[in-house]
Design a protein that fits this description.
It is a single chain. The protein is α/β, with parallel strands linked by helices. It folds into 2 domains: 222 residues, 3-Layer(aba) Sandwich (Rossmann fold), CATH 3.40.50; 128 residues, Rossmann fold (3-Layer(aba) Sandwich), CATH 3.40.50. It is 40% helix and 20% strand. It contains 12 helices and 17 strands. Strands 1, 2, 9, 10, 11, 12, 13, 16 and 17 form a 9-stranded mixed beta sheet that branches. Strands 3-5-4-6-7-8 form a 6-stranded mixed beta sheet, sandwiched between helices. The longest helix is centred in the N-terminal third of the chain and has 24 residues. Belongs to the leucine-binding protein family. Keywords: Amino-acid transport, Signal, Transport. This is Branched-chain amino acid ABC transporter substrate-binding protein. Pfam families: Peripla_BP_6.
């Protein structure tokens, strides 16, 4: 079914900033960052632990580190409320490196700690899906800030929740935007063979075919390589109007740079996996006019948003990155559910099941940047999709993409 895209054009521009973590490491044992400043609960307080899982090292560390910063900031603001009720709430940070096996290892580590009553994460779809199976067995609720893969919630596991849009929403709207706003009639689709990248590209392909845009190729590449000239040569031979890439910035930056060097002048588009300061570093000037969709809106679009950014940076000494805002709101939703579970349990420490039920019932929670209401699958009924582009080493907000 054809739907017209309406773009609320906004001219807001802001510098792309992100915090990056260090070298690769295996998942660690639970490491508490207590609200009291240490790893032990204050005298008389009961300890509650919330797991935080995402890539803190590796090529996707931009996503995990920025989400974690938002999560910790949200907890710091609510810690005193929990202390008044007799609870010290801590974060157990787990580095899954955006790797499915590490995701499972991190999940098992958190599950083994009886004080862990909820998980904020995982950040990437590929890690979230196998981890969700483990959490489901343990009845441990998860709230992902950014895992967009449709299969994550379609699997029917009650523990799974996310505050962001799904890939079928993002991919569909990206394809509609490309056709209606960029005038695309032919497209070469590339993906990284991952759960997120391939899933997103498949949704774009489906909508293109529905709308009469010719998909001249649908090809996968291996993530982590340093030369994609083979696939770029195929693109040049096909001469499509546009390249769409489903995957992350590390590969996208190389592909668009090599495509421009070989003379491809058409639009290059992708999803929120292209949203990173490193995209600009890798692609250089070739990143200019690269368009991407995102589940995260413009934080600087309101005075309230600007104040929040200033307060965050003053309090943490860190710059706001891609998933800082959604890490903040995902933790806020989780803490709200935890508080509701404590109240429903007569002020006593709730069980994992009680926290799961409280979070699952979230229907109209107004976060700082996103409104949250979970449907039966755990998807956010209020999730949105936005469009951005790179211009002169800045990320330019175009507007919300509506069908």
């Amino acid at each position: 079914m054809k739907k017209q895209t309406k773009i609320a054009l906004l001219s807001t521009m802001f510098a792309v900033t992100a915090a990056l973590s260090g070298c690769g490491q295996a998942a660690k044992a639970p490491e508490g960052n207590a609200s009291t400043g240490g790893g032990e609960a204050a005298a008389g307080d009961q300890k509650i632990v919330i797991g935080s899982v995402g890539p803190l090292s590796g090529s996707a560390s931009d996503y995990g580190s920025t989400a974690l910063q938002g999560e910790e900031y949200a907890l710091a603001q609510k810690a005193e409320e929990f202390k008044k009720l007799g609870f010290t709430v801590e974060v157990s940070k787990q580095d899954d490196q955006a790797d499915p096996k590490q995701g499972v290892a991190s999940a098992e580590m958190l599950i083994s700690d009886p004080n862990v009553l909820a998980v904020v994460g995982h950040v990437t779809t590929g890690s979230s899906i196998p981890a969700a199976a483990k959490y489901d067995e343990a009845g441990l609720v998860m709230v992902s800030p950014s895992s967009t893969g449709s299969n994550l919630t379609d699997a029917g596991k009650k523990v799974v929740h996310r505050i962001c849009a799904r890939d079928d929403q993002q991919g569909t709207k990206a394809a509609i935007y490309a056709k209606n706003q960029l005038g695309v009639k032919t497209a070469f689709l590339i993906h990284d063979k991952g759960a997120y990248g391939q899933g997103l590209a498949e949704q774009v392909k489906k909508q293109f075919e529905k709308d009469g845009v010719q998909v001249v190729a649908f090809e996968g590449v291996t993530a982590g390589e340093k030369d994609y000239s083979a696939i770029v040569n195929q693109v040049v031979a096909k001469n499509p109007d546009m390249i769409y890439f489903g995957g992350y910035y590390a590969e996208a930056g190389i592909i668009v740079k090599q495509a421009r060097e070989k003379g491809f002048k058409g639009p290059f588009m992708g999803g929120d996996g292209l949203d990173s300061a490193d995209m600009l570093k890798i692609a250089g000037d070739a990143a200019n006019n690269v368009v991407f969709t995102s589940t995260v809106g413009d934080l600087t679009g309101t005075d309230e948003g600007k104040k929040w950014i200033a307060d965050f940076e003053k309090a943490t000494g860190k710059k706001v990155g891609i998933f800082t805002s959604f890490g903040y709101d995902a933790m806020s939703v989780t803490l709200n559910g935890l508080m509701e579970a404590i109240k429903a349990n007569g002020g006593k420490k709730p069980s994992r099941e009680q926290v799961l039920d409280a979070i699952h019932k979230t229907s109209d929670f107004q976060g700082q940047f996103v409104k949250v209401g979970f449907d039966e699958k755990g998807d956010n009924k209020f999730a949105q999709v936005f469009a951005y582009k790179y211009d002169n080493n800045n990320k330019v907000f175009i507007g919300e993409v509506k069908e």
